[in-house]
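Request: How about a record?
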Amino acid sequence: MVAFGLYTHIQANRRRSVALVIGLFVLVYVLTFAFALLFRALELGPPTPGGAVQDYLRAAARDLLWLSPIVTAATALWVWVASRFHQGLIDAVTGSEGVARETDPRLYNLLENLCISRGVPMPRLKIMDSDRLNAFATGLNEKQYAITVTRGLLAALDDAELEAVLGHELTHIRNEDVRMMVTAVVIAGVISFFGELVFRWFDVLPRWSSSSSRSSSSSDSKSKGGGAFVAILIALALIALAWALSLVIRFALSRSREYLADAGSVELTKNPDAMISALMKISGKGELEGVPSGLMEMCVDNPRSGFADLFATHPPIEERIDALVRYAGGHRPPPQPQAPAIQAPAPPSPWGPPTAA
């Protein structure tokens, strides 16, 4: 059942990746139509006869037809650049540096042994100079795959715990979770860029529209005003819909990937207790300052959560530990006894020690 579950998870990731790319172009075309509708409604293009809503919609549809090749080429270029250079951008944001056997033999040997045990190519290793406790995997193919860990994680975890975290990230690569998440982040970036572009235009264009409309007759303005206002509302609704769907693309991805990555780590290391101990140490200490939310979604733990946890990209650490205890034979470490509080000695009396009567 485990093998079947992992196989279907990988196949589902592949289907999601294809659906994400298709959804990307659909949402970009929706935003392009909304942009054209705003342009027409603000009367900056050729005059729309009659000023009815249907006229604005038809004009925007015609604009979408001739803009589609340009938008398609620009979107494809965005995806190509992001997929080709995303690792360099991540390294620039995080300040990560490559690791070789000579620079950090402990970390390098742990990952190399895991890869040899499963006969998989070894991804590149990187270290992020941060005292926080976290790790993440990135890449779209075997030439790009990389695992990054923080210096805080290296200092806080012992070898068994560090091996468990590396096994977790290596499982994300083997299950193609990383490819799917990078694709989702690229898509969200495209939608955010186009959405912001539309809103910037919407902020600037009304000033142009008001100055150009002064030369038009008042009767013409009245005949077009109502239709233009409705067209603007439709365009804004489409922009909001595309933005909301881009959030769904990022957050609606199955959170089961984290449970499966934990299980994959146990399969690699045969040590569920090490994974449990690592998660307990990482819990509450994984926030990476200055790192975009898209990258945090690929980390071992993402403490950032959405409204009422409905859009949280990771299950709570406690639930992941419970799953390891219930299904992987792990054990929670016993609670550490608290040291008794040491009472500070009373300050000496200014009248000296008491004397016997």
User: Anything to note?
Assistant: Strands lie at 97-98, 124-128, 135-138, 146-150. The mean pLDDT is 79. The radius of gyration is 28 Å. Residues 118-177+256-327 form one domain.
